[in-house]
Amino acid sequence: MENFLLMAFLFLAITIILPSTHGLDQSPKGVDKWFKKLPHAKAKMTKLHFYFHDIVTAKNPSAIQIAQANNTFQSPTFFGLVRMMDNPLTVNPEPNSKIIGRAQGIYGSASFEDIGLLMTLNLVFTNGKYNGSTLSILGHNQIFHEYREMPIVGGSGVFRLAKGIATAKTYQVDNTTQNAIVEYHVVFVSYKVFAEIPDRGIDLEVTDSVKNNDVVKSEL
Ligand SMILES: *[C@@H]1O[C@H](CO)[C@@H](O)[C@H](O)[C@H]1NC(C)=O
Ligand SMILES: *[C@@H]1O[C@H](CO)[C@@H](O)[C@H](O)[C@H]1NC(C)=O
Ligand SMILES: *[C@@H]1O[C@H](CO)[C@@H](O)[C@H](O)[C@H]1NC(C)=O
């Protein structure tokens, strides 16, 4: 009996602890609870700085062409060229410097004049307290301009509901290989919720709304 209880306890402890990102409950119920605490949350600003390595030409490229238009290579802006990337993000510009995450997503040449990329990507952090959290970028990137400002449209994990700006500046580019190292300054607002705010029990209301296929009304 005692063994059974111990096993049951361990099982519960493991299933409760494992699915979380640094103590953050990422189950649907955990997310609901987090939203309920939002009225008591504190908005906070976070700044991140890192280097993005777009490795196009190499034995192991991190950005690979996945599509093109039939006249992409007759176009002065390579209109229609699309690449999928899983680019390393590092602390310093050197490629062998410490990796803090990956830029995973797609960029495509979306402008007939000037070179303007459509950037749709997630910054997937893999280090320290941000490990497992993401920020999503949806932006316009004129790669030959000095500063390219791109919106942070959301986030997950400790960056839930993030809104902000990522500014890209080319650190180094090789026009022949197209390999580039790009410096990113990211600033955004997200929320710090406090664990001690009591659960006010609106789980049932949420369930009903979902059943009725309604937009869930917030209590904010
Ligand atoms: C490129 O594709 C378009 C649309 O499918 C077609 O009309 C055109 O003839 C193609 N051009 C070439 C050079 O293949
Ligand atoms: C990040 O989290 C994963 C599990 O989600 C773990 O395997 C990995 O070791 C962690 N990395 C760091 C640097 O903490
Ligand atoms: C690379 O190409 C861009 C755009 O054509 C140009 O402005 C830049 O000077 C070139 N860089 C080098 C090192 O040739």
UniProtKB/TrEMBL annotation:
Keywords: Apoplast, Secreted, Signal
Signal sequence annotation: 1-23
Keyword Zinc: no
Pfam family, one: Dirigent
Intracellular or extracellular location(s): Secreted, Extracellular space, Apoplast
Domain of life per record: Eukaryota
One of the protein's GO biological processes: phenylpropanoid biosynthetic process
Major subcellular location class: secreted
Annotated Gene Ontology cellular component terms: apoplast
InterPro entries linked to this entry: Allene_oxi_cyc_Dirigent (IPR044859), Dirigent (IPR004265)
Function: Dirigent proteins impart stereoselectivity on the phenoxy radical-coupling reaction, yielding optically active lignans from two molecules of coniferyl alcohol in the biosynthesis of lignans, flavonolignans, and alkaloids and thus plays a central role in plant secondary metabolism.
Complexes and interactors: Homodimer.
Assigned protein family: Belongs to the plant dirigent protein family.
The name this protein goes by in its record: Dirigent protein
Originating species: Solanum bulbocastanum (Wild potato)
